[in-house]
């Protein structure tokens, strides 16, 4: 199945969790440091990554710190 | 005197942003020179090729540890309560703080906050345990509603973000101060000159949050010092009690024993 991480299409086997989806994303040379994420627009805490299932067409947005005013 | 941010007492009444500086080094030096104990920062979609953001984050973490500076994440770029709440929750996890500078923009032209979405997001975030610092317009009733919801800190704008126009409607800001005497009020956005910050403090505001005015100065480090001094001057002026304006001139030199030919009725 396909999901999207920061707009990039990622192909996963069926029955995946957020943890495994992020592992696949990182294998594609996408370093993940100091980040938080939203699944389909809703915040998911780090503690819940292993128990949160992702399904076909899901969209994950990964956010990192930047300067701000 | 200290400023109270949800029970945290801080010596400095200047809150400073971390954006728009010519380099991360200048940002770090300007923040140190400002004496600010609160630094704003933000979140954006992670771009693996962007290493500049990592450097800035590294400096801010360093300042946070060494100078005991508090992080104040914002929800810049959000246009709905739902977006702002999601970003606030991500910020809380990432920055390990329940402080949030809540921004919900309602208009792209002047980046004016959306009061309806702001109230909705504020209510939800306060219920979720956040300490909300809402960025809002200088509308008295909106500020009152935010206070009634439980915001102990309220941050009306002086003028639109990044314009440097200073206090466009002093009457509105003075009225908010008068009507919300127990709220911690911080003027946020639109400050251009140190005298703008001083003016806000002379009104009895508790603090000033700014970014562009320092970051875009020819010498940000020197400007940071200037703002620090201006805010202290304004605060002391307010505490000292500023004289009332008078309609007519009054001699400041005593008139007793002035030469007789200046007395009324003497030619």
Strand content of chain A: 35-45%
The level of helicity of chain B is 40-55%
Largest inter-chain contact set: A-B, 25 and 38 residues
Q: What's the mean pLDDT score of chain A?
A: 91
Average pLDDT level of chain B: 94
> How would the global form of chain A be characterised?
globular
What is Rg of chain B? Answer: 21 Å
Major beta sheet, strand line-up of chain B: 5-4-3-10-9-8-7-6
Most strands sheet of chain B: 8 strands, parallel
The count of β-strands of chain A is 7
Q: Number of helical segments of chain A?
A: 1
**SSE succession of chain A:** EEEHEEEE
Basic shape of chain B:
globular
Structural class assignment of chain B: alpha/beta
What is the N-to-C order of secondary-structure elements of chain B (H for helix, E for strand)?
Answer: EEEHEHEHEHEHEHEHEHH
Which stretches of chain B are low in confidence, meaning pLDDT under 50 for 5 or more residues running? none
GO molecular function (chain B): thiazole synthase activity
Binding site for 1-deoxy-D-xylulose 5-phosphate (chain B): 162, 189-190, 211-212
Function (chain B): Catalyzes the rearrangement of 1-deoxy-D-xylulose 5-phosphate (DXP) to produce the thiazole phosphate moiety of thiamine. Sulfur is provided by the thiocarboxylate moiety of the carrier protein ThiS. In vitro, sulfur can be provided by H(2)S.
Keywords (chain B): Cytoplasm, Schiff base, Thiamine biosynthesis, Transferase
